[in-house]
Specification:
The complex is a heterodimer of chains A (132) and B (398). In chain A, the strands form 2 sheets. Chain A has a 5-stranded antiparallel β-sheet with strand order 5-4-3-6-7. A two-stranded antiparallel ribbon of chain A has the order 1-2. The longest helix of chain A has 9 residues, at 8-16. Chain A has 132 residues and is mainly beta. The radius of gyration of chain A is 15 Å and the shape is globular. Helices cover 7% and strands 38% of the residues of chain A. Chain B is of the alpha/beta class and 398 residues long. Chain B has helices at 28-43, 65-72, 88-102, 128-133, 142-157, 161-175, 189-194, 222-228, 257-267, 284-293, 302-307, 324-328, 335-347; strands at 10-21, 52-56, 78-81, 108-114, 212-221, 232-242, 277-279, 361-370, 375-387. Chain B has a 5-stranded mixed β-sheet with strand order 1-5-4-2-3, sandwiched between helices. Chain B has a 4-stranded mixed β-sheet with strand order 6-9-8-7, sandwiched between helices. The longest helix of chain B is centred in the N-terminal third of the chain and has 16 residues, at 28-43. Chain B starts with 9 loop residues before the first strand and ends in an 11-residue tail after the last strand. In chain B, 58% of the residues are buried. The chains are: A mainly beta (132), B alpha/beta (398). The A-B interface holds A 2-5, 8, 33-35, 59-69, 72, 75-78, 80-82, 84, 90-94, 113-116, 118 and B 122-124, 128-129, 131-141, 143-145, 147-149, 151-152, 155, 196-201, 249-250, 372-373.
Chain lengths: 132, 398
């Protein structure tokens, strides 16, 4: 069992309602991603799921032309990127195929995926978010 | 401040590569056994004298080091399983050298061995973080994560594809002198650029070909190697660091500056004195990051540094003189031993057709274990001549 697997299911349930819920440390406030059921900063075991604002900065992006999993085959090339959330952690997310290359500000949303929820990063403006 | 005990009284002998093939009907133990037999024969030792084993393999499971003692018919007093991927070779020598120094064992085999993944193995279970938070994003495997690192590095520092390609082309040249290398067809920069895309950052020749194979060395005291008249290498400096810089938004640093200084200070050497570099080459960008972290040039400057140099074994900056994993193939965790074994070959005068001239001292750098979005394990070593093989000129330590 992964340290954060206990949260995979509630993470997916929240995603189905369009909400991004991540574990947050009750002691130091650190947002946990990858999912952990303890705090990777202060090691407290008291972490609770909270709704997170998905605003963030796109760090890097690429397209995959090959996949190890046949279920992705028809969707190639797939665009993915890494995003540093304003809330703290870095996430890997799908990017829309038509997203302009110069986009920096994004808003990350959790959406239902093939096996549970996945994250999508959309241009901040398109998601109705304000750049800080 | 930590005071690290030197390793100079431990000899590294019998550098061995074994069994390279694109596929094999055999499991990992067959490769381990063949490597061990070859090393013992090379050194003129009996199996019963072996009392230590350090082993790295991705596909040995459900077996492990303890299982190997039964498979191999040995009764070691030192046993280490080393799940450090690309850093496993240098780490194996670090662990085994301490065992020899402490008297826990007198003769230790360090072996990396692997076979290709079984058909249908998507790599989904490499780590829990990658299974839950990377695999669902297109199952691109390491190509996906390293593509993000490579794209980010190239954009920030203005590095064109050709700069990465120059390294691949030079390594292919080096591989032509290595009969273990599985990719020896000539390749030029046009071939590199024309390869089919794997990601936007990588063409086929930026990505290692998985294969079967094994690498290994034996460790014993320098006194024993001297008394047996064996060619041997010594590790005069070494560093190890895991999860170096969590604050890097995208991985940039593999070594903090103080580790780099400590490495050369221990050995009494400088980067300019390195006659060759063997750097873990899962992707070209990672070679560049290692060169920057290990003091050859400033951060972001590695492509320009290499552009003025000849990376062939016969050039002025010999790099991955066996061809590296990009041309030998990546035999799983054995890939983490490839540079180490090649370095020992070079400084002991056993590199044959691809010998680097005056190869008395060189650098090995390992890097591995992408748990989520970056490699976690790094280990580096300065490897020097203890005694060269007969007929290749004697070059003692200063």
């Amino acid at each position: 069992m992964a340290s954060g697997s206990v949260f995979l299911s509630p993470f997916a349930d929240a995603a189905a309602q369009g909400r991004l819920m991540l574990p947050v440390c009750a002691r130091c406030g650190t947002v946990q991603y990858p999912l952990r059921d303890f705090c990777g900063n202060c090691l407290s075991e008291d972490v609770q799921l909270q709704e997170i604002d998905g605003g963030g900065r796109l760090l890097a992006a690429t397209r995959l032309h090959r996949s190890a999993d046949a279920r992705f085959g028809a969707r190639l090339p797939l665009r993915i990127g890494s995003v540093r959330l304003d809330a703290g952690p870095t996430v890997i997310a799908f990017l829309p195929s038509d997203m302009p290359r110069d986009v920096s500000r994004v808003r990350v949303r959790a959406e239902p995926g093939l096996d549970g929820a996945v994250l999508w990063a959309h241009p901040a403006a398109a998601a109705g978010a304000e750049a800080p | 401040m930590k005071v690290v005990r030197p390793w100079r009284d431990v000899a590294i002998v019998a550098p061995t590569s074994f069994g390279y093939a694109k596929t094999s009907a055999h499991g990992v133990p067959w490769f381990v056994a063949g490597t061990l037999r070859h090393m013992l024969e090379t050194a003129g030792l009996e199996k019963k004298e072996l009392d230590g084993l350090a082993i790295a393999s991705y596909r040995l499971a459900p077996d492990h080091g303890a299982s190997m003692s039964e498979h191999l018919g040995i009764s070691p007093t030192f046993l280490a399983d080393l799940p450090y991927g690309g850093a496993s070779g240098v780490i194996a020598v670090r662990r085994a050298a301490r065992a020899v120094q402490a008297g826990d064992a007198e003769l230790v085999a360090c072996i990396g061995a692997d076979v290709v993944p079984a058909p249908g193995d998507t790599g989904v279970n490499f780590s829990t973080f990658s299974r839950d938070h990377v695999y669902p994003y297109g199952a691109g495997g390491p190509n996906a994560v390293f593509s993000l690192i490579s794209e980010s590095y190239a954009a920030q520092h203005g590095v064109p594809r050709e700069a990465f390609g120059a390294l691949c082309v030079a390594q292919r040249f080096n591989a032509r002198g290595n009969h273990h290398a599985l990719l020896r067809d000539p390749m030029d920069i046009a071939d590199y650029l024309a390869a089919r895309p794997i990601t936007d950052a990588f063409g086929l020749y930026d990505c290692v070909m998985r294969c079967c194979g094994a690498e290994g060395v034996l460790l014993m005291s320098v006194a024993r190697a001297e008394s047996m008249g064996l060619p041997y290498a010594v590790m005069t400096g070494s560093i190890e660091r895991h999860h170096v810089n969590p604050a890097d938004p995208v991985q940039r640093s593999i070594w903090p500056a103080e580790d780099c200084r400590a490495l050369y200070a221990m050995a009494g050497r400088s980067p300019a004195q390195m006659r060759f570099v063997q750097a873990y080459d899962d992707y070209p960008v990672i070679v560049l990051l290692q060169l920057e972290g290990l003091g050859f040039c400033a951060a972001g400057e590695a492509a320009r540094f290499l552009a003025g140099r000849d990376m062939r074994f016969c050039g002025d900056f010999p790099l991955n003189t066996s061809g590296g994993m990009l041309s030998v193939g990546q035999a799983g965790a054995a890939g983490g031993f490839l540079g180490l074994v090649e370095a020992v070959r070079q400084v002991t005068g056993q590199a044959g057709a691809r010998a680097v001239r005056d190869a008395g001292v060189g650098l090995v750098s390992g890097y591995g274990t992408v748990n989520y979005d970056r490699g976690l394990c790094a280990a580096a070593a300065i490897i020097e001549t203890g005694r060269r093989a007969a007929g290749t000129g004697v070059q003692a330590l200063p």
